Amino acid sequence: MAHLKDIARASKVSIRTVSRALKGNGYVDTDVRQRVLRVAKSFGYSPNLTARSLRTGKSFDVLAALWHVDELNMAKLAGLEGSLRHHDYQLSCLFTSAFGEDSTKQLLQEILRRRPAGVVIFTDRFSPQRDCYIARSLVQAGISYIMVDSVADDVDSVRIDRSQGVYDAVLHLAAGGRQRIAYWGLTSDSTRWVGYLRAMQQLGRSPICLELEDLGDDNLSWATYGRKITQLSSLPDAIQVFSDSMAFSLLGTLHAAGIQIPQQLAAVGFDDRPMAALAWPPLTTVAQPCRETGAAAADILLQKIAGAEAPPQGWSRTLPTRLVIRESA
Amino acid sequence: MAHLKDIARASKVSIRTVSRALKGNGYVDTDVRQRVLRVAKSFGYSPNLTARSLRTGKSFDVLAALWHVDELNMAKLAGLEGSLRHHDYQLSCLFTSAFGEDSTKQLLQEILRRRPAGVVIFTDRFSPQRDCYIARSLVQAGISYIMVDSVADDVDSVRIDRSQGVYDAVLHLAAGGRQRIAYWGLTSDSTRWVGYLRAMQQLGRSPICLELEDLGDDNLSWATYGRKITQLSSLPDAIQVFSDSMAFSLLGTLHAAGIQIPQQLAAVGFDDRPMAALAWPPLTTVAQPCRETGAAAADILLQKIAGAEAPPQGWSRTLPTRLVIRESA
DNA sequence: TTGTAAGCGTTATCAC
DNA sequence: GTGATAACGCTTACAA
């Protein structure tokens, strides 16, 4: 692998001149520049990034830390990497699942050890206090960060407008003539529930929550709940489901109970996992803007790294979802 | 951030001694070592990896290149990262989807530019020639590599014994009393088909292939094919399906056609995606050993990086699948 | 057992 | 415009 020195020798100029010619940041005679560029190309030169980093004190590594190993995060990661690469940054990953006890501390240590230019935290959406702690620690260490999907509102995060997504879906159900639109989900994520309530209020209807009384029992699977739904004395004619996963369970259960979808009951999921298109009937669902989320995270993080001022509304950004209408509703 | 110099000054010894004390590779007086270690700890010292890399000429970056953005690769990636981290290597990612035309060339250029210690190629299982080309290029550039799931047999790759997986599944179906066990899949991946044929031969039965005559038409979705299956004049009583995705389509279709699963027809998928457990009925399927695949890739790659001799049978390794029995078969 | 000094490949300062 | 030369923080011969 060729070095600056080799090119300097071959072009009969000094290293400094080669450096200037290649980066185009100083005055170099046009002829000399041409020659140097040609030689560099013929040598297949590409700078040693390690040396550059050491000298400039700058890193071009962005570290992503992930809790959930799933396809949604994978797509967000892909969007992130594409944007970073476009700006000559590289993406490294850290899967927290491989950490043991005291994983947050270990994660932070590992981050500090690697001295990345910035960090992207893909939160698990269930630990706002942890998010805050991590954010504080990183700020203190002088490392730029952006989170993805944090529900803590005092950290910089790219968020997805889940509330609006559910709102849109419920209005779609109503527009389709559905009268009794229910919600089946978890209270631990309030954003979707809030969107449902807003929509029902907008429609002037009373909310119907399918959260059954013994939901606290973790041993009952979603499928079991689905079966309970089919046994309700009065079935709703539409259900907004928390996630595609739960919607899948429900769909099968409804089929098994002989309930026609969407004729008797419409169902809408959330996430738009690839499987949604393969369900029977193909699942209408609220799509997360995965690639865009990753791209937005890259955009914000690079600005922070560059030392830009935070915009008046802060760094956080909320991206819209997209209702994907298929056959289930 | 503290440097070796700072610790040396504070401990009243030379940089060299600090280095030795911390790495434990030379003779250092016990007292001195204790003191240095204490000071280093109080300073929160951690070595500058960039400087170390530059000096030693070694990189501790492993680069993973991925074609498919899905949860299976994500799990393999997680397994890979965990193992690498355990050996103080870090994992960087490159998603080929973000490359434009001529993506293979671009990918190789990007790999060379970054000078990683090694490369893991997560192939798309459909381009053996490309795999070979990439492998040759990397070897020529002196970069250690390992592939994941390559179907080219002259490259080093961690493979999954899909053939055996399907074989096991078909035998399971037979053990459950199924008489007419069919296979529904793509010919483009022959490994699974071969496993099916082997099993049927072992059972002394004739294979039943559900690949319908107009399978060449890409516009027909899997669901459409599923419907065709329900319309067969004589239905099989078990189907080994190519993938969980296709099995999902099929399951819904069969339900819609009023076919009881597994009573009338048993179905087995392949992959064990998380969704499989949520299907109705929960899908019996052949699980890919994702984390293990990633770990094996790390293991082999690190050996190659260390300059170890290839074992007599070559670097490639084939991992067993695991039959996950749920309710669909 | 410990210290001195050179060097990894780049970038940046300054004088010519 | 261009060229010596120092410096980034670490590792490692070699000397003491």
Descriptive notes:
Two copies of one chain form a homodimer. The longest helix of chain A has 16 residues. In chain A, helix 1 crosses helix 3 and helix 2 packs across helix 3. By secondary structure, chain A is of the alpha/beta class. In chain A, 44% of the residues lie in helices and 16% in strands. In chain A, the strands form two sheets. A six-stranded parallel sheet of chain A has the order 2-1-3-4-5-11, sandwiched between helices. A six-stranded mixed sheet of chain A has the order 7-6-8-9-10-12, with helices on both faces. Chain A contains twelve helices and twelve strands. Chains A and B meet through helix 4, helix 5, strand 2, helix 6 and helix 10 of A and helix 4, helix 5, strand 2, helix 6 and helix 10 of B. The first copy, chain A, binds a DNA duplex (16 and 16 nucleotides) through helix 2 and helix 4.
Inertia-based shape of chain A: elongated
Q: In percent terms, what proportion of residues of chain A is strand? A: 15-25%
Structural class of chain A, by secondary structure, is alpha/beta
The major β-sheet of chain A equals: 6 strands, parallel
Low-confidence segments of chain A = none
Query: Quaternary arrangement of the chains shown?
Result: homodimer
Question: Summed up, what is this model?
Answer:
The structure is a homodimer of 329-residue chains. Chain A is α/β, with parallel strands linked by helices and 329 residues long.
